[in-house]
């Protein structure tokens, strides 16, 4: 069972920045790592994802503000979030996909005050 450890959430004012990290334990062949978020009363949605080959996808709402990156040697994915808006407030979850499984992190709260 792959374990994911997330960090970097918190409270920030609108216009500020945060950087989320997600580290996967063990020696694993990672296909895709990504970040999703879920706001109260809403469905979980994709924020950004990065494939093993380095291709990235972003939700339209975060394009130009968020950047996903990875350190393959550390099995770690990052989400740099700039120009944060109150509507970015949510619990952010890391997701890891291998050939055999899908794993989720425990979630980290991001709160953006206006």
Outline the structure in words.
The protein has 114 residues and is an all-beta fold. The protein has strands spanning 4-7, 10-13, 18-24, 30-38, 45-51, 56-58, 66-71, 76-81, 90-98, 102-104, 108-113. The strands form two sheets. Strands 2, 4, 5, 6, 9, 10 and 11 form a seven-stranded mixed beta sheet that branches. Strands 1-3-8-7 form a four-stranded antiparallel beta sheet, with no helix packed on it. The protein is globular and about 40 Å long. The N and C termini lie far apart (40 Å). 28% of the residues are buried.
SSE map:
Blueprint: E1 4-7, E2 10-13, E3 18-24, E4 30-38, E5 45-51, E6 56-58, E7 66-71, E8 76-81, E9 90-98, E10 102-104, E11 108-113
Parallel strand pairs: 2-11
Antiparallel strand pairs: 1-3, 3-8, 4-5, 4-9, 5-6, 7-8, 9-10, 9-11
